[in-house]
Amino acid sequence: MVVSPARAILRALHDVMAAKTSAQVKLNAVVATVAEQLDSEVASIYLLRDGVLELFATKGLAQAAVHVTRLAMGEGLTGVIAATREPLNLAEARAHPDFAFKPETGEEIFHSFAGVPIVRREASVGVLCVQHADPRQYAEVEIEVLQTVAMVIAELIAGAGLIDDVAAAKARRAASGPVRLSGLKLVDGLARGTAVFHQPRVVVEHTVAEDTEAERARVYGAFIRMREQIDGMVKQADFAGGDSAEVLETYKMFAYDEGWSRRINEAIDTGLTAEAAIERVQARTRAKMRSIPDPYLRERLIDLDDLSNRLIRIVSGQLGSAASAGLRGDTIVVARNLGPAELLEYDRRFLRGVVLEEGSLTAHVTIVARAMGIAVVGRVRDLWTTIADGDELLVDGGAGAVLVRPTPATIKTFTATSALKAKRLAEYAKLRDLPATTLDGTRITLMMNAGLQGDAAALNETNADGIGLFRTEFQFLVSATLPRRERQTALYKSVLDAAGSRPVVFRTVDIGGDKAVPYMRDGDHDDENPAMGWRALRLALGRSGLMKVQARALLEAGAGRTLNIMFPMVSEPWEFDAAKVIVEEQRAWLTKSERARPERVAYGAMLEVPALAETLDVLLPKVDFLSIGTNDLTQFLFAADRANPALADRYDWLSPAILRFLRRVVAQCADAGVPVTVCGEMGGRPLEALALMAIGVERLSITPAAIGPVKAMVRSVALARVRAAMTAWLTDASSTIRADLSAMAAREGVALG
User: Fold this and answer.
1) What is the Cα Rg of the chain in Å?
2) What is the pTM of this model?
3) With bands split at pLDDT 50, 70 and 90, how would you rate the model's confidence at 643?
4) Which of 247, 345, 228, 265 is nearest to 302 (CA)?
5) Distance between first and last Cα of the chain
């Protein structure tokens, strides 16, 4: 391959684009240039026409196949590239399961294959591919050249009117009636409004530069302006510190990344315009990030996309977005994804919800949206073919559902549901100052789970008995670097201050596994099964420096008070002992240094690993309290990944297996005089919470939103009768406990919401 192939090809394509010839002649010249510069025996262009991919130009395949060979979206290697919008690079094309032989092309003598999508306005409109007789994988630089050429082809065919919008138009017409889309529930809430596409991406109209120095100057100016915008946004953010502010600070770090600007300059050096260079680097970054298994790094891609989109809008002068244009009524923003800064630009008076094609629970935009109280549904497929600008949408964040163009009857039902939810919330609010005591006098302690600084405000809103689980890892997940001890201390102190006299249980950091962070990567621990891998206390004991810093931060924050520390994912008692030693060493150092420290430190363990239940006789004399994490515990007991939709209904929290297991643990804790609390989603559901109470659980730590419904249930039940019935059901190992308990609750008038 020749030196600097991208620059050589762009120079050649500049002449092709400038020539006064037909689009077909230009496409023929493009494939000839690509084949020559990449020393490839075949170069072909397929374009979307009437909903199928048609061979439009080729160098190396039979010319008789041009405008004859056709592939459906998803058919063959070319169809897969168009459908997934992802490159393919194969040393042996026939070995791929989607390979489809087209005899009229004469391609049987070729082995290697590489192809990239031709993308226009977020849609695949064609494929550029190369082939070679000898089996070989194309080099990364060659794939990048193909992606650059694909950008030029998109510009060429758009100018020639060859872009096919027919398929998309047909899909939209077919979906003109009501449609229900399902996705991932990111932020709970009900929202109704008009669909407004965020449209963060600018269509690059010109890809080949006339003057590289002029393009470089445009990029420098755009960087300066973008950084000024980000600085202003950080200063004006009205969050009182905490995680949302840290999100923006981390986002700002990306904006000032010199490596990013250097890569854009290198792309300009190859002959691209400023806009095309930014898009080229963005596409390359996205391709690399998609191949990384680390979920944290993949989620940070959203921030990089946001910054790239912002920069390209500035450099192109196309600054308008749905946010800058202003909202005029109740709005649901629809986007592939959003960065936190883009979300903050919207007028909160009218922003009701967000629907994303991507998104995740730990993405920055999710954290900020939760702080804003905006309902969000992510991972929604077929957004672009189903939703049109101006469509009415109903968003149910709790169910992870989006209703598109709802019927009047559906709107009426949704409105009634919203009103009922508001009415129930008002009824629950009336219970705020009343104790969670059953009709026969059993007091149930209702605490709340938290993980963000802003969550502490819900203590007063719900009048919860305390924070039974404060997840400290969120601060680690939203930070680009390991949070400094001072920042950790400030967060923990602010939570304790907000709680006042009510207890707060801090769970030490649970990162690793599926909550990996880049600054704690360990090549020796790449887990195939992250939930059961190198995470939580296992990781913390392996990286004792991390735990020492957090221990100091917790001890300093708890000065003069009782500090409750809980260790996650304890598998054996020695792990609890080792973790406690680390904290006690830091406590002894504070004492020796005559520094402020807690009056008392209470230590607890989280029972999530079933093995720990077999050594409770050894553990319980050492702990001040025990918490049961039902989310992980259940998946470990049933060997069923709780994140796998196919397994969601394969086990039941009210099965005899889980209830018998929990009853034994609760009884053993009672005999030892150790308070036991159930944390997790199970305790936040009224019927499941009733089952827990029936086996002896009297302490729950649940989401703030669940406290009202669970308190209403507690105050409406005579617990002794339910406990007697549960004993009989578990003795018989009945598999109908859910149905039996539901029927009994209905007969007894128990409020289940």
Assistant:
1) 30
2) 0.63
3) low
4) 247
5) 69
